[in-house]
Amino acid sequence: MLDHLQKINQVALNNYRIAVLLPCRNEGLTIARVVSEFKKALPQAEIYVYNNRSTDDTVEQAQSSGAIVCHEYLPGKGNVVRRMFADIDADIYVLADGDNTYEVGAVKRLIERLLTEQLDMVVGARRVAGNTPQAYRPGHKMGNRFLTGFVQFLFGARLVDMLSGYRVFSRRFVKSFPALSNGFEIETELTIHALELKIPFAEEPTIYGSRPPGSESKLRTFTDGWRVLGTALLLFKEIRPFLFFSLVSLFLGCVSIALAIPIFINYLETGLVPRFPTAILSASIMLLAFLSLTCGLILDSVARGRREVKRMAYLSYSLPQLVGQSLRLKE
After folding, report:
1. Residue 166, phi-psi category: left (phi > 0), alpha (psi -120 to 50), beta (remainder)
2. Percent share of the chain, pLDDT over 70
3. Interior/surface letters 104-129, b for 16+ CB within 10 angstroms, e for the rest
4. Structural domain boundaries in the chain
5. Alpha helices in 21-137 (DSSP H)
6. Do you know which InterPro entries this protein is assigned to (predicted)?
7. pLDDT, tens digit, 9 for 90 and up, residues 147-198
8. pLDDT at residue 8 above 60?
9. Angle 319-188-84 from CA coordinates, rounded to 5°
C-alpha cells in the first residue's frame, strides 16, 4: 500500500518542473554529496550549481555528481541568486546551500506545504540537532535573533528564522522578485519582499547540521550582520517612507523644542532673546522636521505606486496547481 502511494505521489510530482538552485563558492568538500542527496530526494528535478569564483574543485565535483554547472563572476550570494532567478525557468524552485548543513530529506515536506497550502514561499526554519550543538555558532544565533526581531518590529510580522538560506518558491515569487542585494543580505530582501506584497508564506522546521572538517563558512558575523541591518533599514525607508520620515520628523521636532524651551522661559522672564544663534538653530531644525514629514507624505504615494506595479507583476504569473485531488509526498 505504501509503495502504491509513493508511486502515485511521484507521478503527481513529475508534473511539475522543479529546479534545485545551489550557489557555491569553494564547496568542493561537500557539493557532490549535496547534489547526490537532492537527486535521491527529487529524481525528476534539475539541479543547478552556480559557481561563484571558486578556487578549489567545486566545479569538477559538481559536474561529476551530475549537476548542471553555471558561473556567476560577480562576488556575493545576492548576485548569484539574481542570476539564478533570471536564467532558470521552472514551476517550483528549491534554494539551498552547497555546504551540506541543510536537511535535504525535508525538501518534499517543504514542497508539499507549498502546494497544499497554496503558498509562494516556504522557509526551512533551522533547528539544531541535539548531537550537533556547534553547528549554529553563538554569534550567528544571537545575530539572527536580533535581526529577525528587528524586522518583526519594523514590519509587524512573526518570524522564526529570517536568515535561513533553505527555501522553496513558486514561479510567481521568483519572477516578481527584484533581487537588488549583492551578498548575504539577500535572505532579508526575500523575506521583506513577501511582507511588502503580503505574499503567502510559511516557515517549516528543518534540521541544521554542522560543516565537515576543513569546510569554512563564508559568513562574516559582524560585517555581514551590519549589511543585513542596513538592508533592513533601507528597505524600511523604501517600503514605509511615511512612517520612516515621521520618526525622523518627530526626533527633529523634539530636538528643536528642547533647544527652544530655555529661550522661551528666558523671554517670559526678561522679555529678551539673548541666545539668538540657538533660537535660529531651533527654528531651522523645526523647519527640517516639517520638511521631513512632507517628504514622507510624497514618498508614501510613490511607494504605493511602486507596490501596485510589483503586485501586478506578481499576479501576472500563475500559482502551481495541485495535480489530482490531493498531494501527500512521503519521505
Report:
1. beta
2. 84
3. bebbbbbbbbbbeeebbbbbbbbeee
4. 2-239, 241-314
5. 31-41, 58-64, 77-87, 107-116
6. Glyco_trans_2-like, Glycosyltransferase_2, Nucleotide-diphossugar_trans
7. 777 777 777 777 888 888 999 999 999 999 988 888 778 888 898 899 888 9
8. no
9. 55
Helix (H, G, I), strand (E, B) or coil at 165: coil
Q: Quick one: which H or E segment has residue 206?
A: strand 201-208
Strand 46-51 relative to strand 18-24: parallel, antiparallel, unpaired? Answer: parallel
- Domain spanning 2-239: CATH superfamily: Spore Coat Polysaccharide Biosynthesis Protein SpsA; Chain A (3.90.550.10)
How far apart CA 77 and CA 162 sit, in angstroms, is 16
Going by C-alpha positions, the residue among 297, 87, 296, 122 that lies closest to residue 203 is: 122
Long-range contacts of residues 213-219, Cβ cutoff 8 Å, at least 24 apart: 214/29, 215/27, 215/29, 215/30, 215/99, 215/100, 216/26, 217/99, 218/25, 218/26, 218/77, 218/184, 219/140, 219/184
Q: What is the pLDDT of residues 45-80, one digit of tens each?
A: 999 999 999 999 999 999 999 999 999 999 989 999
Cell 555558532 locates to 137
Q: Give the count of beta carbons closer than 10 Å to the beta carbon of residue 227.
A: 19
Are 73 and 83 in contact by the 8 Å Cβ rule? The answer is: no
Q: 284, 266, 287: which is closest to 275 by C-alpha?
A: 266
